[in-house]
C-alpha cells in the first residue's frame, strides 16, 4: 500500500508545473559537490585562461626576426640600387689627368 500511494502521488505531480521542483536527495548532493568542485577549480581555470590569452597576444621571437630580416633586406636593396646607379655614371668622355 505504501508504494502504491507514493506512485499515485508521483503521478499526480507529473502533469503539474511544479513537478520539476521536486528533487531527489541524490541530485541535491551531486549539485552541492559540483558547486564545491567548481569553486576549487575556478582559480585554476582563470589562470589557464590568462596564460592562453597571454600566449595568443604575445609577439614571438620568430615574428620579430622576420620583421628585422625584411627591414634589412629592404635597406640592402636600396643600398645596392644606389651604389650601382652612382658607380656606373662615370662619363667616359672626360679625360683623366695623368701625372
Automatic annotation (TrEMBL):
- Membrane-topology descriptor: Single-pass membrane protein
Q: Which residues form the signal peptide?
A: none
PANTHER family in UniProt = TRIPLE QXXK/R MOTIF-CONTAINING PROTEIN, TRIPLE QXXK_R MOTIF-CONTAINING PROTEIN
Q: Which UniProt keywords apply?
A: Endoplasmic reticulum, Membrane, Transmembrane, Transmembrane helix
Would you tell me the protein name for this molecule?
A: Triple QxxK/R motif-containing protein
- One GO cellular component term, please give it: endoplasmic reticulum membrane
Transmembrane regions listed in the UniProt entry: 64-84
Instruction: Name the source's superkingdom.
Output: Eukaryota
State if Lipid biosynthesis is listed as a keyword: no
Chief location bin: endoplasmic reticulum
Source organism (scientific name) = Ursus maritimus
In the record, the note on similarity to other proteins reads: Belongs to the TRIQK family.
Amino acid at each position: 500500500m505504501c508504494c502504491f500511494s507514493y506512485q499515485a502521488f508521483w503521478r499526480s505531480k507529473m502533469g503539474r508545473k511544479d513537478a520539476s521542483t521536486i528533487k531527489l536527495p541524490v541530485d541535491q548532493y551531486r549539485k552541492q559537490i559540483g558547486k564545491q568542485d567548481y569553486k576549487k577549480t575556478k582559480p585554476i581555470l582563470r589562470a589557464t585562461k590568462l596564460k592562453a590569452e597571454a600566449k595568443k597576444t604575445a609577439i614571438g621571437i620568430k615574428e620579430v626576426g622576420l620583421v628585422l630580416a625584411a627591414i634589412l633586406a629592404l635597406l640592402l636593396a636600396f643600398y645596392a640600387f644606389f651604389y650601382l646607379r652612382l658607380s656606373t655614371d662615370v662619363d667616359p668622355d672626360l679625360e683623366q689627368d695623368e701625372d
